[in-house]
Amino acid sequence: MKIINLGIGMLLVGALSAQTNKIDTTNQPLNSAQNVLNNNSGKKFTIGGYGQIDYNQGYNDTARTNGKLDVHRMVIFMGYKFNDRVDFVTEVEFEHVKEVYVEQAFMNYRINQAFNLKAGLMLIPMGIQNEYHEPTTFNGVERTKVESDLVPTTWRELGLGFTGTLDGVSLKYQLYAVNGLLGYDGGGKFKGSNGFRKGRQKGAESTISSPNLSAKVDFYGIKGLKIGLAGYYGNTQSTLYDGLMHNDTTGLAEQADSSVVGMAMVGFDVRYTYKAFQARGQVISTTVSNTAEYNAFTGKDLGSSMIGYYGELGYDVLSIFKKDAKEKIVLFGRYEAWDTHASVASDMEKNDAYNRSAITTGITYHVAKGAAFKADYQIFNNDAEGSMPSNQFNMGVAVWF
User: Mind giving me the DSSP string for 234-296?
Assistant: First the structure.
């Protein structure tokens, strides 16, 4: 509870078409997809994109480390409006130049503002950066570790559900039934170091043996403040159920049951801006069942619970000298801690190396709306006996248009 209390306490696409508004005039949390759905320009087709180019340089006391230069991701975002009720949104991503993914592809049917039907490949609404991952919307060259090792950003799955905004009470809600993470496909895919990350199916011939539930509520009723509460519940998926007889007595059913785990993930996030000041933070907690059986069957070391949090503060120092400046220079600092072995099954030893923390300090220079240069320095640590901190310097270019 101390971790949760600390996390809680610490505290768009404008040019998708020439007329698409990127300014958040309603204080609702907006991302590229929401900007497309909110497009009232009258144009049927909109297009835009975002991308980041990174330089990472690690340092340690014992050996030289080569730096890495990477076109980390370039994304093409497209939307088509069939009529006033029906929209299609898709996002095609090129990662590291050579990998191609479809990150979103869904149809939205608008009954009214409070009730929409949504179906297809969708982002799981958990945390901040999984939904709001356009690189000019967050400080730091890289996404946070909490939203990489606990929330496997970018986490998207196939499903359908309902969304809507209730302006009278300043709430936005999302409720989806989706396929679960794939925990077994010829071998175990989950592990202690990064939890469920390798289990993302990404809409590519996804396996489903039981649907999962994903939900989130966002409050936007106070100017500059956005608060989110999310939950994800269900079992992971396994290819061992395919073709399994209902009355199996050979032990194959027991093997299949040992190849899945149950997930209960809860997330709380806060974002706040006031003039030149900005703050954000979040807490993610996950309980995992059946890990003793899963680890024994697969040889993995998945934890039985995981928890992580971060808090970040930033300030636009350019506003001190020029209050009407169109550019922004944000100095920021962030502390995050995450433990993917917060608890383990009784027959397994906890790995203290999975109890980690990171301090990140840096600068984001917004040279125009949707364009920024970034630089930061990170110090990573863990609780393993004898471990030494590792350091990394990052620089990057970020765009969103």
Answer: EE-EEGGGTT--TT--SSHHHHHHHT--EEEEEEEEEEEEETTEEEEEEEEEEEEESHHHHHH
For residues 357 and 3, the answer to whether their CB atoms sit within 8 Å is no
35 φ, ψ (degrees, to nearest 5): -65, -40
What backbone torsions phi and psi does residue 313 show, to the nearest 5 degrees?
Answer: -125, 145
- Structural domain harbouring 345: 2-400
Cα separation, 253 vs 265, in Å, equals: 26
Neighbours of 185 (CB within 10 A): 16
Residue 61 half-sphere exposure, CB side, CA atoms within 13 Å? 4
List, for residues 111-169, the tens digit of each pLDDT value: 999 999 999 999 999 999 999 999 999 999 999 999 999 999 999 999 999 999 999 99
SS (H, E, C) 209-234: CCEEEEEEEEECCCCCEEEEEEEEEE
CA diameter of the chain: 76
Model's pTM, two decimal places?
A: 0.90
Strand, coil or helix: 146? helix
Residue 207: partners with Cβ closer than 8 Å, 6 or more residues away: 179, 182, 185, 201, 237, 238, 239, 242
CATH classification at residue 265? 2.40.160.10
Q: What is the mean pLDDT of residues 260-287?
A: 98
> How many domains, in total, are found in the chain?
1
The partner residues of 115 in beta bridges, in order of sequence, read 112
Which residue has better confidence, 43 or 164?
Answer: 164
Region of poorest pLDDT, from 4-18, 207-221, 276-290, 367-381: 4-18
In sequence order, what are the beta bridge partners of 377?
Answer: 361, 393
